[in-house]
């Protein structure tokens, strides 16, 4: 029995290694023109078949022309990487921010991945922002903070600003909004550069700091070892902990784990998703910073936070949604219940392109075989649930979420004065939450127009399709998620009541102009 099991494991490993090798050979091969045109047709057909609002911002005639022009532009065989550079700007013309094209990345064996985990690329420890049409270092997760405030001039002899402008053509905001591009290209510059250039072991960058121009080369280096052999020998000589000390240590560790789950710890950034604190010497002004609506035990966090606001009778609350790319509808629905004192329906029934949206989602060609097999076994249940939840009206299908029902506000709902800070990277779920607050005149909005549309977006669940020849993957939302409120013209985000655009001088001096304006406004109100 053991020999048979070992034989099966070996066969699986050999198949895995073979598929990795085949994939890597395919993405680096020069693909025939006819095969790449077939990939283009397949992508467009997938979008037309599954995306419920494909022509919301760009007409069918324009998109037909764009895809036809793309096919005509391919006159010689090219690699998957070059194909990505041609396809992504065309897909971006759809102007739906949740549609994205992945680049052709190399696959690694288990042994290679293990070795890669031992190293880190110094370049990825830097955080960037695109301000005044220039790329700046605004954060460093490593030990070296001397680069903060530096401008990137050239990367491997390519102009950094030209690269940023090029990358802005390869993704989209929702509709006609422009504020997302500068924010996103800065925040995601490392990822965009990787998608463009692939895996790198070193990178030479020319910086400018004040009047000084210098070059720094970044390498893929070994991660810091967690203690040496000598340290481990010394640790063995440490006196054993008593039962009480052990218990205290266990309680402290458990408390730390609970706090991390509640606030959503982001290990790569060494920071929390949710932060709550007071500004000033008393509890009159509270600050709630939410980086995303993705991880952690959000219910406990919001309940504790608004319980504190209620008990302390806090007069002003600042909700910071800058660079919040979205996340769970369940979380924003729950948060909104603390910010309104009226009954509400958070979203309308979602328009979809099929009576079986979840089944279509599970049956994509990128879905692992085990999940597909499970879905087929459970298909009677999945199909029945989809048919019950999906209704047809006026030749369109609509899926009913539990968030489409009317709800009462939370008993701990905050009744004080509310400010919301937004920027171009406030997207998806954070824009949906902002739509409710803006429509009901619940808050004063400070910052810049959101990247996510006021009138909703196509998201909910996603279908990821892999193209047969290039092996590029395209991700698309399958559900139109929107509130009951609408603004005209369509295709724009939530507008601030007070527009404030930060500058690089603000960043260099660690000034937060949006937050400063709010604090000054609160002081005026007090006086």
Describe this structure in words.
With 527 residues, the chain is an alpha+beta fold. The chain is 41% helix and 20% strand. A six-stranded mixed beta sheet has the order 11-12-13-17-18-21, with helices on both faces. Strands 2-8-7-5-6 form a five-stranded antiparallel beta sheet. Strands 1-20-19 form a three-stranded antiparallel beta sheet. Helix 12 runs parallel beside helix 16 (429-439). The longest helix has 27 residues, at 2-28. The N and C termini lie far apart (82 Å). The model is unreliable at 1-15 and 225-236 (pLDDT under 50).
Index terms:
18 helices; alpha+beta; six-stranded mixed β-sheet; disordered N terminus; five-stranded antiparallel β-sheet; 527 residues
Outline of this structure?
The protein has about 525 residues and is of the alpha+beta class. The chain has helices at about 1-30, 35-50, 60-75, 80-90, 110-115, 160-165, 180-185, 190-195, 230-235, 245-265, 300-310, 330-335, 355-360, 370-375, 380-390, 430-440, 505-510, 515-525, and strands at about 100, 120, 125-130, 135-140, 150-155, 160, 200-210, 210-220, 265, 270, 275-280, 285-290, 315-320, 350, 390-395, 395-400, 415-420, 445, 455-465, 475-480, 500.
Mean pLDDT across the residues is 91
Separate helix tally: 18
Strand content: 15-25%
Structural class: alpha+beta
Distance between the termini: 82 Å
What is the topology, as strand order, of the major beta sheet? 11-12-13-17-18-21
| Structure summary, number of beta strands | 21
* Percent helix range: 40-55%
Rounded Rg: 26 Å
Major sheet: 6 strands, mixed
Overall spatial form = globular
List low-pLDDT spans.
1-15, 225-236
């Amino acid at each position: 029995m053991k020999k048979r099991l070992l034989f099966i494991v070996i066969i699986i490993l050999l198949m895995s290694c073979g598929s990795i090798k085949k994939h890597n050979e395919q993405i680096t091969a020069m693909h025939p023109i006819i095969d790449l045109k077939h990939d283009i047709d397949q992508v467009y057909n997938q979008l037309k078949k599954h995306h419920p609002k494909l022509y919301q911002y760009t007409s069918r005639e324009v998109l037909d022309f764009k895809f036809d022009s793309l096919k005509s532009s391919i006159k010689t065989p090219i690699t998957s990487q070059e194909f990505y550079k041609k396809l992504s700007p065309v897909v971006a013309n759809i102007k739906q921010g949740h549609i994205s094209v992945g680049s052709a990345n190399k696959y690694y064996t288990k042994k290679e991945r293990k070795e890669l985990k031992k190293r880190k690329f110094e370049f990825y420890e830097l955080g960037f922002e695109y301000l005044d049409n220039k790329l700046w270092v605004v954060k460093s997760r490593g030990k070296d903070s001397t680069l903060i405030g530096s401008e990137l001039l050239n990367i491997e002899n390519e102009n950094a600003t030209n690269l940023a402008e090029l990358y802005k053509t390869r993704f989209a905001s929702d509709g006609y909004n422009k504020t997302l591009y500068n924010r996103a290209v800065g925040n995601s510059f490392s990822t965009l550069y990787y998608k463009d250039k692939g895996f790198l072991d070193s990178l030479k960058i020319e910086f400018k700091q004040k009047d000084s121009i210098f070059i720094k080369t970044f390498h893929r280096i070994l991660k810091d070892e967690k203690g040496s052999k000598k340290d481990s020998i010394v640790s063995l000589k440490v006196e054993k902990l008593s039962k009480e000390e052990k218990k205290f240590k266990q309680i402290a560790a458990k408390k730390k784990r609970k706090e991390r789950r509640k606030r959503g710890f982001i290990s790569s950034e060494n920071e929390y998703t949710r932060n709550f604190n007071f500004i000033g010497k008393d509890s009159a002004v509270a600050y709630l910073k939410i980086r995303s609506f993705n991880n952690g035990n959000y219910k406990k966090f919001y309940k504790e936070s608004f319980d504190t606001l209620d008990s302390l009778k806090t007069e002003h609350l600042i909700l910071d949604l800058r660079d919040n790319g979205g996340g769970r509808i369940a979380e924003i629905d729950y948060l909104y219940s603390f910010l309104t004192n009226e009954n509400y329906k958070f979203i309308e029934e979602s328009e979809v392109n099929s009576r079986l949206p979840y089944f279509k989602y599970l049956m994509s060609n990128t879905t692992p075989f085990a999940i597909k097999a499970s879905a087929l076994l459970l298909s009677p249940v999945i199909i029945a649930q989809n048919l019950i939840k999906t209704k047809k009206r006026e030749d369109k299908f609509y899926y009913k979420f539990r968030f489409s029902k009317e709800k009462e506000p939370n008993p701990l709902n905050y009744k004080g004065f509310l400010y919301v800070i937004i920027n171009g990277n406030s997207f998806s779920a954070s824009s949906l939450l902002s739509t409710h607050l803006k429509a009901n005149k619940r808050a004063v909005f400070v910052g810049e127009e959101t990247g996510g549309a006021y009138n909703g977006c196509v998201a909910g669940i996603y279908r990821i399709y892999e193209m047969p020849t290039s092996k590029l993957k395209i991700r698309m939302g399958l559900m139109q998620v929107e509130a009951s409120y609408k603004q005209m013209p369509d295709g724009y985000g939530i507008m601030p009541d007070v527009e404030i655009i930060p500058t690089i001088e603000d960043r260099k001096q660690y000034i937060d102009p949006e937050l400063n304006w709010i604090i000054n406004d609160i002081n005026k109100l007090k006086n």
